[in-house]
Design brief:
heterodimer; A: mainly beta; Rossmann fold; Neuraminidase; six-stranded mixed β-sheet; 4 helices; 13% helix; B: 182 residues; alpha+beta; 60s Ribosomal Protein L30, Chain: A
Chain lengths: 431, 182
């Protein structure tokens, strides 16, 4: 079955769409970062080593640099090894000559009480003006977070979009044959903390829109059961523990409902329930597999994986159930849909010639593009600003996390604990 | 009495010494003429010994556990599947028939069927595939007379592989549904 679509109209639509996306960028005339994807120019920025004083204070500029590089929107210009504090006199014309359109300088100082005084300035080397300047007083435990916040400020000043570096991610680590941990970490994978340890598998974590609760599947009772876990308190509840397997939890955008996959009536089918597990009703009625539900950001649709046409393909249906429409047509194995926050892109995993790769499907133009060049990708997850994808893949037989710009141009391996890492999910903005 | 007891103890001790000495001398005799002495000793442990104990395991049919007797199809509890398949192959018909009939005859017994997949592909989709395999085995057991309430089908997907390794041999071991009696 081929998707009935005229090529000419598709490319016309794509061009129109490109122009529309460009408009808001053009209206922010002072922002020179193009964020429309492949072919867009990366913004050249230099981040000088921060002047630093005291243990632990030396890491800030490196974190900021890594964050901005990972976004795919910036080209990091070598700033040398000489620290430049925020109050230093710098010759901006020199930096312009070195190729940087912006320069970040700053300092990080450990105070007597153990807190850190962190300051930075963002300077425009072209107009020779300051774009931003701020100082933070951070407890030791929040030094990394402060660096991520500085990266977010810079990102927002230069792109007009909110940064995601201070958000959190969750993922699963298998530390031995009989040991699994659910971790919460910074968006760069660092600073991870175990929210749950188990002697049985944990899969499919999903952040609630509040950024505090996680839904996931735990096998601790000898079969898959869906739990909702409040990360701040450790309080947890089995919300779907029916006869058979319970899996694939997905939050509605308002956080009040969960779509889940249950097998209580035979094969895997999608059900909707209140977030506390009450009011369960069946949404799909197929004789095969329907699973991996995910809500569109406007709450109108549920995208899911189904083998109703033979192999697994992605479909969507109204969030209250009803007729499903097939969304993927290339290849015979397309699974794990995730929607971008603006609802325009769908990331998924495609099997092509035995390789499993993260793809992005443009729901407006209908085009598909690969994001990665790895062969065992799983679980794509959009950043809350839609510009980056987090996913699991394998390197030398070990599971790792990676992030990629949605155009696939910049891919970065995230840091993480030792063990087999998988099942990443990117959390929302936290107020 | 006390005196007698003490005397008796010394008498036993003295006898022991005499026996030890006698033992020593018998070794000497053995060396001189080993054959007759050895024969006498060996003869005591022979088949005719009234003190012999021959261990025997009762062969009563009532005592055989059908789930561990390798001759009984009930002892087999794993059904293996082809790649991307949910078809219970004909070679597993005796297994399915045995468990189905056993459940039909023992309505108090309950089982769990645990579906598994190989490591290739997504975790949730594999969970659903494993479920489909467990469900396929369940349908066959129902045909043999087992009742729905006796069987819970669950899936571990690719999360609990029996065989580690990324090769066809390991994958074939992991494409499996296990019958587990509760």
């Amino acid at each position: 079955m081929k998707k009935p679509r005229n090529n000419a109209s598709r490319s016309a639509r794509r061009n129109l769409c490109g122009a529309l996306i460009l408009l808001p960028v053009v209206t922010r005339a002072q922002l020179r970062v193009e964020i429309t994807g492949v072919g867009g120019q990366q913004f050249p920025i230099a981040i000088a080593p921060f002047a630093h004083e005291g243990a632990g204070a030396q890491d800030v500029d490196a974190i900021v640099r890594a964050d901005l590089a990972r976004s795919g929107l910036f080209r990091i210009i070598d700033a040398g090894a000489q620290p430049i504090a925020e109050n230093a006199n710098v010759n901006l014309a020199d930096w312009k000559t070195r190729g940087a359109d912006a320069l970040v300088i700053g300092s990080s100082r450990r105070l007597a009480d153990g807190r850190y005084d962190v300051r930075f300035r963002l300077l425009d080397t072209v107009k020779q003006t300051q774009l931003d300047g701020l100082s933070y007083l951070a407890p030791a435990a929040e030094l990394r977070l402060t660096a991520h916040r500085i990266a977010d400020r810079i990102y927002e000043k230069l792109t007009g979009e909110r940064g995601v570096f201070a958000t959190r991610i969750a993922y699963v680590v298998q530390t031995s044959r009989n040991s699994w941990e659910l971790h919460v970490a910074d968006a760069d994978g660092a600073n991870s903390q175990a929210a749950l340890r188990s002697r049985e598998p944990i899969i499919s974590p999903a952040w609630a829109p509040d950024g505090i609760r996680l839904a996931y599947v735990s096998f601790e009772t000898g079969k898959p059961v869906v739990y909702v876990h409040t990360v701040t308190t450790g309080e947890r509840k089995a919300v779907a523990n029916f006869r058979g397997s319970n899996s694939a939890p997905a939050w509605s955008p308002d956080g009040r409902s969960l779509a889940v996959t249950l097998t209580r009536e035979g094969n895997s089918q999608i059900f909707l329930m209140n977030a506390d597990g009450s009011n369960v009703r069946r949404l799909t009625q197929s004789s095969g597999i329907d699973t991996e539900p995910v809500f569109s950001p406007d709450g109108q649709w549920i995208f899911f994986t189904s083998d109703r046409g033979g192999g697994p393909q992605i479909y969507r249906m109204p969030a209250s159930g009803g007729a499903a429409q097939r969304m993927t047509f290339g290849g015979d194995y397309n699974i794990s849909p995730r929607l971008s926050p603006d609802g325009k892109l769908m990331a998924y995993v495609a099997r092509r010639s035995g390789r499993f790769q993260v793809m992005v499907h443009d729901l407006v133009s209908g085009t598909d593009s690969p994001v990665t060049d790895t062969a065992r990708d799983e679980s794509p997850s959009f950043a809350p600003n839609g510009r980056l994808l987090l996913y699991a893949t394998e390197v030398n037989g070990r599971g790792i996390l990676a992030s990629a710009s949605v155009d696939g141009r910049v891919r970065t391996r995230l840091s993480g604990p030792s063990g087999d890492i998988r099942e990443p999910t990117w959390g929302p903005y936290i107020k | 009495m006390q005196y007698f007891a003490r005397y008796a103890r010394s008498a036993v001790a003295a006898a022991a010494v005499i026996l030890m000495v006698a033992g020593c001398s018998s070794v000497k005799l053995d060396e001189q003429a080993p054959a007759p002495i050895v024969d006498a000793g060996a003869g005591g442990a022979g088949a005719g010994d009234p003190r012999a104990v021959a261990p025997v395991t009762a062969a009563s049919t009532q005592g055989v556990d059908p789930f561990t007797d390798p001759k009984n199809p009930l002892s087999k509890k794993s059904v293996f599947f082809d790649f991307d398949s949910f078809v219970v192959k004909s070679e597993f018909q005796p297994l399915v028939e045995a468990h189905g009939k056993y459940l039909a005859a023992n309505s108090g017994r309950q089982i769990k069927i645990e579906g598994n997949t190989d490591e290739r592909g997504g975790r949730e989709y594999n969970l659903a595939l494993g479920q489909k395999r467990a469900e396929a085995v369940k349908q066959r057991l129902l045909l043999m007379g087992a009742r729905d309430a006796q069987i819970e089908t669950v899936s571990f997907g690719k999360e609990k592989p029996r065989a580690m390794g990324s090769n066809e041999e390991a994958w074939a071991q992991n494409r499996r549904a296990d019958i587990v009696y509760k």
